[in-house]
From TrEMBL:
InterPro entries: Cyt_c-like_dom, Cyt_c-like_dom_sf. This is Cytochrome C. SUPFAM superfamilies: Cytochrome c. GO terms for molecular function: electron transfer activity; heme binding; metal ion binding. The keyword Iron applies. It comes from Pedobacter psychrophilus. Transmembrane segments: none annotated. Residues 106-198 form the Cytochrome c domain.
Length: 201
C-alpha cells in the first residue's frame, strides 16, 4: 500500500514538473523576441553617443565613423611627408630633424633593447655588421657603424639623426622599413643607441 502511494507521488511530481515547464515556455514565448528581459542600469550599455557602426542623421552621408578631414594628423602620429624616399629627402632629413629626446641612461637602455631586438640580427650587437643572420650566411653584412661606409656616400660613423631616421622610415635596398614596428619615440631611442655604436668599438 505504502509503495503504491510512493509510486503515485512520483507520477504526480513528474506531471507537475512537465506542466510547469510548459507554462514557463508558453509565457516566455509571448514575450517580445528582441527584449533581453529585465535590464539593470541600461544607461551603462546603451550609450547616448553614436557607435561607430551606427547610422547617423547628423552627417550628410549618414555614417557615424567619418574619415578624418584631409590634412589632419592623427594623435601620436608624426608626419614625414617633407622628407620623401629620395636622395634629396635623405639629405633634407639630415639637416631638417634632430632627436627631440634627451640623452639619458633610461632612453639609452630602452634604445639598446629595441636595437638588439630589431636591428641586432643583421647589424650585430656592437653594430659591426655581424649579426647572427649574417653569421649564418643568410644575409650580406651591412656596413659597420663605426668603421664602414654608407652605400649613399660618407662614413657610417658620420650618419646624422635625420639620415638614420630616414633609413628606419623607408629602409634601404636589402634593409626593409621599420616604420610599422617602431613608434617615432622608439626610433629616436634606437638612433640614440646607434650613435653609441658609431664610436670606435
Ligand atoms: C634584415 C637585416 C637588417 C635589419 C634587421 C636592419 N638593417 Fe639596417 N641595414 C641593413 C643593410 C643590408 C644595410 C646596407 C644597405 C645598403 O647600403 O644597401 C643597412 C643599412 C643601415 C644604415 C645605413 C644607412 C645609410 O644611409 O647608408 C642604417 C643607419 C641602418 N641600417 C640602421 C638600422 C636600424 C636602426 C635598424 C633597426 C631598427 C636596422 N638597420 C635593421 C640590414 C638590416
Amino acid at each position: 500500500m505504502i509503495e503504491n502511494m510512493l509510486a503515485m507521488n512520483k507520477t504526480n511530481i513528474l506531471g507537475l514538473a512537465i506542466i510547469m515547464v510548459a507554462v514557463a515556455t508558453i509565457l516566455s514565448s509571448c514575450h517580445d523576441k528582441r527584449s533581453r528581459g529585465l535590464e539593470y542600469a541600461p544607461n551603462m550599455y546603451y550609450p547616448i553617443a553614436y557607435n561607430p557602426d551606427q547610422k547617423n542623421p547628423i552627417f550628410e552621408n549618414g555614417i557615424s565613423a567619418q574619415v578624418p578631414p584631409i590634412g589632419t594628423t592623427p594623435i601620436g602620429f608624426t608626419k614625414f611627408d617633407e622628407f620623401p624616399n629620395t636622395p634629396e629627402g635623405y639629405t633634407a632629413a639630415s639637416t631638417g630633424i634632430t632627436n627631440p629626446l634627451p640623452v639619458t641612461k633610461k632612453n639609452l637602455v630602452e634604445g639598446q633593447q629595441l636595437y638588439i631586438a630589431m636591428c641586432g640580427p643583421c647589424h650585430g650587437p656592437k653594430g659591426m655588421g655581424n649579426g647572427h643572420i649574417v653569421e649564418l650566411g643568410k644575409f650580406p653584412a651591412p656596413p659597420s657603424y663605426s668603421t664602414g661606409n654608407s652605400s649613399r656616400g660618407g662614413a657610417m660613423n658620420q650618419l646624422t639623426d635625420g639620415k638614420i631616421y630616414h633609413t628606419i622610415q623607408y629602409g634601404l635596398n636589402l634593409m626593409g622599413s621599420y616604420s610599422s614596428q617602431l613608434s617615432p619615440e622608439e626610433r629616436w631611442k634606437v638612433i640614440m643607441y646607434v650613435h653609441q655604436l658609431q664610436k670606435p668599438q
